[in-house]
Amino acid sequence: MAVNAQLDAWYINDSEEDQRLPHHLEPKLYVPVQKLAELGLAHWVLDSNNYEHDMELRKIRAERGYTYQDIVDIAPDLLPNYEANLKNFYKEHMHADEEIRFILAGSGYFDVRDFDDRWIRIWAKKNDMLVVPAGMYHRFTLDESEYIKALRLFKGYPVWTPHYRPQDEHPSRKDYITFWKRQ
Ligand code: KMT
User: Fold this and answer.
1) What is the pTM of this model?
2) Burial of residue 24, with CB atoms counted within 10 A of its CB: 0-12 exposed, 13-18 middle, 19 or more buried
3) Pocket test for ligand 1, best of 130, 140, 148, 163 (most atoms within 8 A of CB)
4) Would the N or C end of the chain have less CB density within 10 A of its end CB?
């Protein structure tokens, strides 16, 4: 399916409720996929049951230079120090490289900042493939289902280092702003 296929995303409140809850504003305020594209997010819907043979995934990997892949499985009984790790994923950060995740099972929330510094919550589900651009502030949490299985892709040797906000002087942050921010 095409880039810009439908994706559930909405602005969230900053209540202290459990991070696994949807945190909708009242009334709910959804974010169109076009807005996500304008922030630099890439999204495809692919066939996760057949990902090893999927021609579209093969094409994306070749075009974007994704040479590495592995699988993460996150659930309370699968991840050591689950609650602490979940809190860590949820600290606002960026990476020097793209974060590419193809959801093979389950679901979770990727929160990303827009240029007005508001959080947008993206509900990534089975078959969604997302690219969070280098230098974009974001965080991750499981949702109430408390399970996600994702293929992680990378260009070359993988580096998952989180750079916690603020990172105003980080070259990837500066590049992100220069490329994507429109006044
Ligand atoms: C990671 O690297 O493990 C993450 O980004 C957590 C979310 S992956 C579904």
Assistant:
1) 0.95
2) middle
3) 140
4) C
